[in-house]
């Protein structure tokens, strides 16, 4: 009797152990955790095996810097050309007290004994608005020619007068640095400003842009697009993301 009871007890214990092991092996949470731990370990191993990216070479860095410089140069050229075109389009307008004129003649080309400040045809001069009565000898002034309201001349003041042919007032006499004779005297009221700055050869560029605006615009936009294409194909990061493999 006692042996049969012990046998039945041991048999019941073995049966319970078998059931518990089956239930634990068939539990979905346990299987999920095992799969996650296996996939994470495989991903870590895959990352370790992936080769590290090499830094760009010195030559590629230099070429990239050159192309970036050309790209920004084109952008600056577009902005500068548009600005010069807008400023030089109507010389009768004043922008914040300044006017921009393209020099058309060589009457102000300096001689050996000339005072500083001369300029040549094709240059651009910046003229600051002033009251003609404040002009003094040696100043380079821009003034209206005759009775015209849109023709200007820029010469150096050689003499100021308070009377002309019995008429009292403010009068000036000018002369171009390259000329040998003085200009006829005129009223100081015709003076629109004093030359304060000169940009060499920019006037020719402004005139060309003004006369060929569409050609210049097409050329600049085409060059900008070409540089953008080169920059995209040759100097992009090139780092394409590899698709992650899940196990």
Detail the topology: elements first, then pairings.
Layout: H1 2-25, H2 28-49, H3 58-89, E1 98-102, E2 124-129, E3 140-144, E4 152-164, E5 167-175, E6 186-187, E7 191-199, H4 202-211, H5 213-235
Antiparallel strand pairs: 1-2, 2-7, 3-4, 3-7, 4-5, 5-6
- Strand proportion: 15-25%
Proper CATH architecture of the largest domain: Ribbon
Query: Can you tell me the CATH class of the largest domain?
Result: Mainly Beta
Instruction: State the assembly state of the protein chains.
Output: single chain
Fold-level CATH name of the largest domain = Umud Fragment, subunit A
The chain-level mean pLDDT equals: 76
**Secondary-structure element string:** HHHEEEEEEEHH
| Structural class assignment | alpha+beta
Shape call: elongated
Number of helices: 5
Record the strand order, biggest sheet. 1-2-7-3-4-5-6
Instruction: Note poorly predicted spans.
Output: none
Radius of gyration: 43 Å
What is the share of helical residues? 40-55%
| Gap between N and C termini | 57 Å
Integer count of domains: 2
The total count of strands amounts to 7
Strand count, sense and barrel status of the largest sheet are: 7 strands, antiparallel
The CATH superfamily label of the largest domain reads: Umud Fragment, subunit A
Organism: Vagococcus allomyrinae
EC number: 3.4.21.89
Biased composition (Basic and acidic residues): 39-53
Enzyme class: hydrolase
Notes on the protein architecture:
The chain has two domains: 58-89 and 201-236; 92-200, Umud Fragment, subunit A (Ribbon). It is 45% helix and 20% strand. The protein is built from five helices and seven strands, in the order H-H-H-E-E-E-E-E-E-E-H-H. It has helices spanning 2-25, 28-49, 58-89, 202-211, 213-235, and strands at 98-102, 124-129, 140-144, 152-164, 167-175, 186-187, 191-199. The protein has a seven-stranded antiparallel beta sheet with strand order 1-2-7-3-4-5-6, with helices on one face. Helix 4 crosses helix 5 (213-235). Residues 39-53 have a biased composition (Basic and acidic residues). Keywords: Hydrolase, Membrane, Transmembrane, Transmembrane helix.
């Amino acid at each position: 009797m006692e042996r049969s009871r012990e046998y039945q007890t041991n048999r019941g214990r073995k049966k319970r152990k078998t059931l518990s092991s089956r239930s634990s092996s068939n539990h979905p949470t346990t299987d999920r955790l095992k799969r996650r731990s296996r996939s994470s370990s495989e991903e870590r191993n895959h990352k370790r095996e992936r080769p590290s990216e090499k830094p760009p070479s010195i030559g590629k860095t230099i070429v990239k810097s050159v192309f970036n410089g050309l790209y920004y140069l084109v952008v600056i050229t577009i902005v500068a050309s548009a600005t010069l075109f807008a400023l030089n389009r109507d010389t009768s307008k004043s922008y914040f007290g300044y006017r921009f004129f393209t020099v058309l003649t060589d009457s102000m080309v300096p001689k050996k004994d000339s005072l500083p400040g001369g300029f040549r045809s094709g240059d651009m001069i910046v003229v600051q608005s002033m009251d003609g009565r404040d002009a003094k000898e040696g100043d380079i002034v821009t003034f209206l020619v005759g009775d015209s309201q849109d023709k200007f001349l820029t010469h150096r003041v050689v003499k100021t007068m308070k009377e002309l042919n019995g008429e009292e007032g403010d009068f000036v006499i000018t002369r171009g640095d390259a000329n040998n004779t003085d200009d006829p005297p005129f009223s100081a009221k015709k003076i629109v400003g004093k030359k304060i700055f000169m940009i060499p050869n920019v006037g020719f560029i402004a005139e060309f842009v003004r006369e060929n605006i569409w050609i210049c615009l097409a050329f600049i936009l085409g060059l900008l697009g070409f540089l953008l294409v080169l920059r995209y194909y040759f100097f992009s990061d090139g780092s394409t993301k590899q698709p992650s493999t899940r196990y």
